[in-house]
Write a structure and sequence with these properties.
This protein is an alpha+beta fold. It contains two helices and four strands. It has a four-stranded antiparallel β-sheet, covered by helices on one side.
Length: about 90
């Protein structure tokens, strides 16, 4: 298993598809940020689905990977907007 954090910036028309895909695999944190644990197979399917939904010449998706949520120190300033478990 791996812990991933996904941040995306896509054209408004593509946002709903990317949002749906992220929600299938991860927990919403805020706006266009998701996090959660994925197996290697889930990660491959997730990345493949995202690649099929975006225009790589315009859209941007960052996927940060680590061994677990406890390896990441998170500092929140302001309101917690989404499901931040298990990091916060």
């Amino acid at each position: 298993m791996m812990f991933v954090i996904v941040v995306y910036d896509t054209l408004a028309e593509r946002n709903p598809a990317v949002l749906r895909t992220c929600r299938q695999y991860l927990h919403w944190v805020q706006r266009s940020v998701f996090q959660g644990e994925l197996s290697n197979a889930q990660h491959r399917k997730f990345v493949s689905a995202l690649k099929s939904q975006i225009d790589p010449g315009y859209d941007s998706i960052l996927i940060y990977r680590t061994q677990g949520p406890h390896n990441i120190q998170t500092d929140l300033i302001g309101q917690a907007l989404g499901n931040t478990d298990p990091v916060l």
